[in-house]
Amino acid sequence: MLEIIRKGKKLKGENIFIIALPNKKGLRRIVVNVSSKIGKAVLRNRIKRIYKEIFRKNKEIFPESYDIIISPMKDVSSLSEKILIDELLMTLSNLKKEGNF
After folding, report:
1. Residue 46 Cα to chain centre, angstroms
2. How many helices (H) and strands (E) does the chain have?
3. What's the total number of domains in the chain?
4. 3-class SS of residue 83
């Protein structure tokens, strides 16, 4: 995870911060990193479950052979799944525009 943070491409969305780095394993992998400033453990775990479920249902929106760290910047548990998917798509498409995918 430290290598991803050091060498990865960083992008900021409205509610999330994403760091992406190519891997040589041919796998799509994500880590959801929620700061303790966002709330108690119950809320942080709910946010992690939301993003992991988005990843499970929509793997095709994530680039192949990339490790991605998703860090919500505020409480997103009240937002709909559609809004979160749209924001992920928008942020990931910004990486694609820059020629990193």
Report:
1. 15
2. 3, 4
3. 1
4. helix
Residue 78 covered by a domain: yes
Residue 75's pLDDT is: 86
- Token pair 């108690």: residue: 40
**CA gap 8, 24 in Å, rounded:** 14
User: Does 98 reside within a domain?
Assistant: no
Q: How confident is the model at residue 48, as a pLDDT?
A: 93
Mean pLDDT by 10 residues, the chain (101 residues): 92 92 93 93 92 91 92 89 88 75 55
CATH code (residue 10):
3.30.230.10
Q: Kindly give, in sequence order, each residue whose CB lies less than 8 Å from that of residue 40, ignoring residues fewer than 6 positions away.
A: none
Element (H, E) at 70: strand 66-72
